[in-house]
Amino acid sequence: MTQLDLAYVRAQFPAFEQASLQGQAFFENAGGSYTCAPVIDRLTRFYRERKVQPYAPYAASRLAGAEMDEARDRLSAMMGIDREELSFGPSTSQNTYVLAQAFRQWLPKGSAIVVTNQDHEANTGVWRRLADDGVEVREWKIDRDTGHLDPADLSRLLGDGKVKLVAFPHCSNVVGEINPVAEICAMARSAGAFTCVDGVSYAPHGFPDIRALGADIYLFSAYKTYGPHQGLMVIRRACGETLPAQGHWFNADTLYKRFTPAGPDHAQIAACAGMADYIDGLFGHHFPGDKADPLGRNNAVHTLMRSHERMLSQPLLDYLSARNDLRLIGPHNAELRAPTVAVALDGPAETVAAMLAPFGIMAGGGNFYAVNPLRAMGVDMDAGVLRLSFVHYTSPDEVERLIEALDEVL
Question: Average pLDDT, whole number, for the chain?
Answer without folding.
Answer: 97
